[in-house]
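2.7 Reproducibility. Because tokenized structures are sensitive to small changes in the input, we list the exact sequence used for Sulfide:quinone oxidoreductase, including any N-terminal residues retained from the expression construct. No trimming or masking was applied before prediction.
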Amino acid sequence: MTYPRGKMEAMNLTRPETTHDVVIIGAGNAGIALAARLRRDDPDLDIAIVSPEGLHTYRPLLSYVGAGLATLRRAQRPQSKQIPAGCTWYRESVVELTPAPVSGEVDATSAHQVHTDAGRRISATDVVVCPGTHIDWDATPGLRQACASPHASTNYEPTMASATWDMLKNLRQGNAVFTISSHNAPCPSVGLKPLFLAADHWRREGRLENITMTVLNENSDFTGLPRANNEIDSRLRRLGVHVRSGITIESIDADSRHVITRDVDGNATHWPYDALHVVPAHRGHDWVADAGIARPETGLIDIDENTLHHRRNDGIWSLGDAAQLGTASSGGGLRRQVPVLSDNLIARRNGQPLAARYDGYSVAPIPIDRRHLILAEWDRQGHEEKTLSFISLARPRMATFAFDLFAQPLIYWHRLLKGK
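Resulting structure tokens (single pass, no recycling of outputs):
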């Protein structure tokens, strides 16, 4: 692996090696919630968190920022306030991970090495790799240029969420196109949020009949739950939205404002747009691939999807967007992943079997207007996994909309990030 000169010089600085029981790479929802849970489950664990971000973003709220229903300030808080008490925070970026040699047997004494851009080397017998993924701007030619214009945006980039609302609220007529990538995009179905929320705004403003809406979805459907998909399809039909699924988004021509797609037969279609919201392709970090812990075909970390432990490297774990989970990635899914990984990590350190299992639970909250929301919940087999056993939340409800917009952020900051 080749590093820029400045990074090599930083790595060559003389710094003592530090050692911890557990190193968590990443301080998003997954990393902070897991660190807090581990501290609750085993207060004697020496835990370090490695992440350079100074701000912590509650990402589900970005869709509401992009609809004028929330502010970016409400979605972000200082990262220093989220680090659990008793944990060491290295505000540095990982540049290399060197797993301990594969022995073929579980060995709780082998140390993995984490190298940072500050020249620090951190050793640990357990490393949890959860840095998330990042937008792959180069995967779609023209995407970066399009999003630099006032005619395209994405809620997946926090600094662009407000621009999404400026773009959509000011559209008077023309073509509004919404794309959804199939390449590692976290909770891709949230790409429908700006469509439904903007359509309700346009209806209230009397502009809806003058705007043609199109969804270009590289996936075959929108969620893993057929009941929710039927509700969504019905709503899209009532709004007159043109839906194309199972296609490939090849490129974007920012100058002529066209999205170019190709179908399974190889036929290309050019879709004109006056406003474009993109759920972009995502990719894992280069150092993850270099460490040999990812699946080559996806770039996601190759863990046992039930135990969340790596398939080959003892003491390597993962959860969240960076992990190959066998189900749709979602922040809500971490509610089930965090306790499973905590239980199994502690069991391994105590020489016990990995008994906890993650069933693939995932969730997609999709508002169909500015008052009602569908909460789709499913497991790895596509069966509905109800949070409330006595009622299905996959039907549009005012209560779920209010919960998602107002209550869930409070639960996130005050409960989930505390390991509760």
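The first helix runs from residue 5 to 11.
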